[in-house]
């Protein structure tokens, strides 16, 4: 198999930070970041199809619990075998972020009532509820979370779940405040991205893709 490369560099002029952020870095207000959520196979199917639902309780109160550390998401659900664990890759709009870095923090359960959209527990902050010391986030509004890929899943269901995600991303009527282009995996803020067939390999490409590799036998 030979590879023929055709691509381009794109400079994004955006008002909001986005993309990958290390687990030790503090999220910026209004940013959109890649995060992860660990769940069961059955729950993964429901989340992909219908979106997340708020947990009614937890160490940070109501919200959806996610992490920028994939290794943490891979531990969940805690009592499930590896054959029933799926890690969903997400795009998360964090909105206004409150740092919760100690036990009995005055806003530990009431941060949303004070106007914050996400609570952030930094790594190794010493909170007893996080014995692993790994980073964690609680996003109050599930509509600020979008499943964009399967980061890890049992081989028996991986292809099925990937297809479910791809189908949902192509659905213009899909629920969620974040709309993602299925080709470049970037947020679509108005209308839709321009797509076309590659002149060489005929694959669909988006003008916002930073690169494209033609695979020809």
From TrEMBL:
Descriptive protein name: PARP catalytic domain-containing protein
One term of GO molecular function: NAD+ poly-ADP-ribosyltransferase activity
Superkingdom, taxonomy of origin: Eukaryota
Entries under Gene3D superfamilies matching the protein: Diphtheria Toxin, domain 1 (3.90.175.10)
Residues forming coiled coils: none
SUPFAM superfamilies: ADP-ribosylation
UniProt domain PARP catalytic: residue ranges: 35-107
Signal peptide bounds: none
Protein family membership: Belongs to the ARTD/PARP family.
Organism of origin: Takifugu flavidus
Record GO cellular component, one term: cytoplasm
